[in-house]
Design a protein that fits this description.
single chain, mainly beta, 4-stranded antiparallel β-sheet, 1 helix, about 5% helix, disordered N terminus
Length: about 325
């Protein structure tokens, strides 16, 4: 019996990861401007930041079903499904747009700090937090009433992506300090901060709530940390200049500007490594995941030919699209 158990464990440990590839392309067009997407798996909706508007796609059909207008310089989207409300962080106008999930109609605006970037809804405390990139703080909002509880709570550096643990806590990368902070959402207080070196300039952040691990991505490095212990427990090599990372079904997916996703898994207890490279498109560097269908969504646009004398390839007008990657 002991021998059989050992063999069974070994088989699990070396099992091949699921194979992913590009399975679709949702063409949107318009301006080649974007930041985050947000996938509401329960209601098969994908929310896409798109410069001055936010687009809504039905992921069951991959069709555009609506647009939230006047979200100037939109960065991120947060969904409070229990309240029937959605929120966008508008970097140009320093505010949040509140919209009705059923109708997509705008119901209000809430002022924030300077250049609200990442935005997240914490469901236990019913708080919305915007992480403000220029004022280096976060704004704490009562999602039920739409009132600001704290306008500017300093975070000690430039905040980037954020995640929640479903227990009243919010985590965020601090890009210029190579740190992760933990926030008590009820009180709006920074409870903890710790280094995630050698990750330098962390942007994207994903969470595994079952094992309580955070995945932060930097140029060519992913840092896996334990927020309870406040330390890095592993690293993995990823592609160049990732901006987003998603977690699903035991794997972390780093979206790299160089045209590929690095899929990272725990190859043995406490050891992490890239287990696959998934070709995408050059510039596809933010990502969200539908945890029901295991599909990944990456906004991107086409690039023309690079100049003969060198330099970056120009963007092709009206080619904004969402790349769909699945099993």
């Amino acid at each position: 019996m002991k021998t059989l158990l050992i063999l069974a464990f070994a088989a699990v440990a070396v099992a091949a990861p699921p194979a992913y590839k590009v399975v679709g392309n949702i063409k949107i067009g318009g301006a080649n401007r974007t930041d985050y997407t947000y996938c509401d798996s329960a209601n098969h909706r994908l929310y896409v930041s798109h410069g001055t508007t936010t687009e809504v796609i039905d992921t069951a059909t991959d069709k555009l079903v609506g647009t939230i207008p006047d979200t100037q310089g939109v960065h991120g989207i947060a969904i409070a499904a229990d309240l029937g409300k959605g929120y966008t962080s508008n970097g140009t106008t320093n505010n949040v747009t509140v919209f009705d999930l059923a109708t997509l109609k705008v119901t209000g605006k809430i002022n924030t700090g300077q250049n609200p970037d990442s935005i997240i809804y914490e469901p236990v405390t019913h708080r919305v937090l915007t992480f403000n990139g220029k004022s280096n703080d976060f704004t704490l909002i009562d999602a039920k009433t739409g009132t600001v509880i704290s306008a500017a709570v300093a975070v000690g550096g430039k905040p980037e992506f954020s995640q929640v643990d479903g227990k009243g806590h919010v985590f965020a990368n601090i890009e210029d300090k190579n740190q992760v902070i933990e926030i008590n959402a009820q009180e709006g207080l920074v409870m903890k901060r710790y280094s995630i070196a050698p990750c330098d300039g962390p942007s994207g952040l994903a969470i595994d709530t079952a094992k309580m691990r955070l995945y932060s991505v930097c140029d060519k490095v992913m840092a896996i940390s334990d927020p309870n212990a406040g330390k890095v427990i592993g690293t993995a090599v990823v592609g160049s200049d990732p901006d987003g990372v998603a977690f699903d079904d035991g794997y972390a997916f780093s979206a790299n500007r160089d045209g590929a996703i690095t899929m990272v898994g725990e190859t043995s207890p406490g050891k992490f490594a890239a287990v696959a490279t998934i070709p995408t498109k050059t510039g596809a560097k933010t990502i969200s995941v539908d945890t029901k269908t295991h599909k990944l969504y990456l906004p991107v646009w086409d690039l023309g030919n690079a100049p003969a004398g060198g330099g970056k390839a120009p963007a092709v007008d009206n080619t904004f699209q969402i790349l769909v990657v699945g099993r």
